[in-house]
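Incident log, structure service

09:12 report received: a user says their structure output differs between two submissions of the same chain.
09:20 pulled the input from the user's history:
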Amino acid sequence: MRSKEDAPDLARDASPIFPIDDNTVPFLIAHGAPDPVVPVDLARRFYAALRSAGVDAKYEARAD
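09:34 re-ran on a clean worker, output below:
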């Protein structure tokens, strides 16, 4: 498995944050804090990027 440092262009292309623009559809992001795969910080950053671009987005998180 390659890391994002080994293939930065591939990592950027796989990220949902970089293609955000004014054509991006609205999002509902639901995230559970105990998620072992996706850190909650990534969901928060995605939400922030959507809102910064003016995309209608809602973020719901569960702590349990």
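09:41 both user submissions now match this output. Likely a transient worker issue. Closing.
09:42 reviewer note: The beta strands are 27-32, 57-62. The chain has two helices and two strands.
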